[in-house]
Write a structure and sequence with these properties.
The complex is a heterodimer of chains A (606) and B (537). With 606 residues, chain A is mostly helical. Chain A has 26 helices and eight strands. The longest helix of chain B has 26 residues, at 317-342. The radius of gyration of chain B is 26 Å and the shape is elongated. Classes of the chains: A mainly alpha (606), B alpha/beta (537).
Amino acid sequence: MKGHVDFSKILTETDADSQYELWATVAEVIEAEEMPPEDEPPLSGKDKNTILNWHRQRLAAPIEERPGVFRPRRLSGPEYRNTLHSLFGFELKVAVVEAEQTVVGEQSLVMKLLPTDPPGESGFINDTHGARLSAVIWDQYTQLAGAALEKLFSKKERDQLGHLIGAPLQEEWTTAEFSAAQAEQLIRTFVPRAWRRPVADDQLAKILTALDGKQGEALVAATKFELKAVLMSPSFLYRGVLMQAEPDKQQQVDPFELAERLSYFLWEDQPDTELMKLAGDGSISDPAVVAAQVTRMLQSPKARSLSESFGAQWLLIGNLDELLLKNPIRLHALKTQPLDFLNYLFTEDRSVMEIIDSKVTFVNQGTQGFYGKDRKRMKRITVPKGIERSRTPNQRLTLEHAEGRGGILTMPGILTMNIGPIQRGTWMLRQILGEQLGEPPADIPAIQPSPPGENLSFRQRFEAHRSDASCARCHEKIDPLGFALDGYDQNGKFTLASDQAKGEKPPPPIDTSGKLPTGEAFKDFAELKAILMTSQRETIVRNIVEHTLAYALGRKLVRSDQPTVDRITKNLCENDGTWKSLFVQIANSLPFRETIIVTSQKKNHE
Amino acid sequence: MSKHWNIERRTFLRGAAGALIPLPFLNLMESAAGAASRDLAGKAKPPVRFVTLFKPNGVHPPSWNINGGVENDFRMSPLMQPFAKHKDDLLILDNMGDFGFSSHSNSTRRFLSGHHTNSKSASLDQLIADKIKGETAHRSLELTTDGLFTNQIGCSYISYDKKGAPIPRESDPQLVFDRLFRNPMYDPKQRGQITSLLDRVRDDARALQRKTGREDSETLDEYFTVLRETEQRLENMKPAAVPQGIDFSKLKRPESTSNLDEQVNAMLDIIAMALWTDSTRCISYMLGNSNSRMIFDFLGIKKQHHYLSHFFRNFSRSNIDALLKISLWHMEKFDRLLTRLKSYKDQNGSLLDHSVVLFGSGMGHSDNHTAQRIPIVLAGKGGGILKTGRYLRYSENQELGRLHLTLLQKFGVSEDTFANASAPLPGLDGGAFDEYHERPFDSWVKTGNGKITVQGRLRMSDDLDEAKIFYIDVKDKPTVRIDVSFRDFHKFNLAYHVGTPIVLSGNRSERKGQLVLTKVTDLKSLFGNSKPGGAKG
């Protein structure tokens, strides 16, 4: 059932284009005569042809590559947290004692106070267009800005304040000695960094005038107030409100906007000094400079955000949080494994397809049991006396003997997070192959038990169950992928491995063979993986490009992004391209570097 | 109604000698709103408040539905027992819903937005909030227990703003308490600074707006709206306006909670306190996301609520028992809210008398997701806009949008349509409505030779601790008890027939003078299928 599409809301050609993936489904169900439903009059042959022809023409029509129409975006929770951290040089934390095997909850004061961002239409939380500023969020911002400024002027952060003022403060210095010169220096350093671009003299002058004639504690109070106003201004809270651009014209974004786009893409954070310098002299507009910056930025620890935010949201790794809430040590093991692996792919210039198959993995004490003989090559970790159980860091491990491993699909965390063949197949189809599946219908009958005297496997019973045509549409795509993983149990253990411990009962035979709707047949998961690496390669690369571009742009892709996706996909497929190459190509792509600002009331928001 | 209400509040507070105000509040203190409006106009009416409590994951219809009742003569169902004591304050609606099946996400939007396609409009609570906010410090509160269910984000929200965007919810009782009662806006020293800050950032934003000259300034509009709201709040939170001299510092801040039960109890207490202090007049609270995966370990249950709610496809005796335990817990929370609201005086009545509480879910049958017979109960007379103590079962399915439209109109919001509804729902104020009529049937019992045959309506036990016991009421005779093995229960699918008239034959015994059917040999449905078809339940 694909239902619930309200076509009456699609009024203009632009609306229609923004729904371009919908039309493929519409054409498919009309061609298969699944729609209209039986209780509605059928389409005449003529109407049917009109619709299908329109779709074919539309698809075939050349698509003009354009940037999306610009709209400012509020910082997401993690972006706000990181930006505040970089700006002040310290983190705001919740007072809580950490202990092993104990769930402490959110430790960042920012993340605790701000409501959790819902994913936007793009599926990523940095797409904050749907998460509007509210009075509650406003109050929390006020509180957070206040807390950060209190801390900046506290004795503990003396060095940090000295750093912002540009001259170290002596041990015995007190805020009573805060001078007009120091206040001015602080403002001149802080405001452009907070707003992520140079600030006009008249604006700085306005702030400085407010401090005139004040001294000591009164000056501290006035300075705090001015800085708080800076942090509560739209110029800080939103990305892009200060962008310099001519209205109604497609154009390159200004250098500071480009620096900001790059740093929030790769770091989820504001631009650092070097990016600001390159924006200041304009050299960042050179694609070669951008490429060099991507290389540099990927080496920074801040690039970890690519796996922690982009990777985790794309692959829904956060689903493990709730599942393993009560077992923090296991959660840590199962979650950091794919994250460390993604971080390795993203930051060490690995091929994009290595996500499917790789000789490298990351293992700690919680996951080593899955890696057979290979684990013997791990460094031993001795647990200090008196410690019962603790989380251990992952070690990089080259796979030599472990069967059924390599790549993200068979990582224990991913297999645990998706329960049973249907969830596993659906996840692979949506997140890896990029297939748009509708919601399953609600009135699914229960799966029947084996008839008396027959001992049918779940797979056999399930196949009888879903023989209905409307179920089969999706299930013929989902099931072969999911059942191919039946050799892995619910914890992700590979039960078909040949090196089962002696004396262990041989596992019952499991049918993990299948055939994709595109025709390729396989006898087990290893063969399916080989198919994914070859004939499904382009599909997977395209899906990777689409997700990465949507994250980089902080918005859902629209039809005019297709040429960009096509070009990058082709390039990566032809050159066995790497993640770094993907990031560079996106950073130098038209939708990333250009913009259109519409001043008329046309609605086609970026 | 007690005369002790005349006790002076300040005396009481002093009497409490620095101790924190105890919970539950004694039935002594006038609500801030009631007294304030009386001071002004001598005899003004207290404002009407609106509270919604959302129950996740639909219901188990055999234990929830009222069957065979009419408007003024009905028997509350087994699941309703925890709040049966409030019968006179309830308006129980039946045959509310939509057609067909619905996803969790769609049913969540339906609960306060009438229909899932009504996605560009504010939800009911928000429209009412705009109307009744008066000069309260907080226009509305949007509360929940659960985190975000990001796979289907719609499951996590019932309240939507005027563009149809979800409104962030708060789940931590301490954070809500602090926002209401520890707000810096009540601090004279900090107020001046807040005002200056608002002025300063507004100047900045205006400068930006002028500079860009963009008509496409939706983002800045959103920013200005929040500035205006904050300013309004500041105005409404003058220290002088702190209601009735209630010293907020004396209100007890909830302890940090260690399980769901404590968390919800703390939040329900805050809800009552927020209304009593007239800090807000409109609150929406979700007891969980629509497809909540919560585990009720404090009830000794290890399986997820959503899994259990699919009680047919995941059928087992222990799963049903667990689901009913969870459902009863939800009903107890509704009871707690009503009891709290009744414990506060509000002019010549209780807070509940001047409130409308909307309790329910967005779907009916939790296993097959039908949108019909959605559980909806209204509580409180709303200052006279509702006539309570009744059960309205409509002859035909009524879209929730019609109920919403009626409530909007009753609250003075001048709307002619809401979602798909263009006509209000009749009967809520005691007016005429088209009542459901059942086909009449006889009830009788015949016995002989250790056998029994009984005809009548099958119902579940009122006591859900013995959920495997059923009854058939017989006219002018004692009720017949059905106490059979799980095998019979399953084979004849007794749960399917609950609420409908059947003829049941089997073996007989007696218990305390009551006839008991101990083994089923035959079951015939009077009007429906004796054997339910397939698994569509």
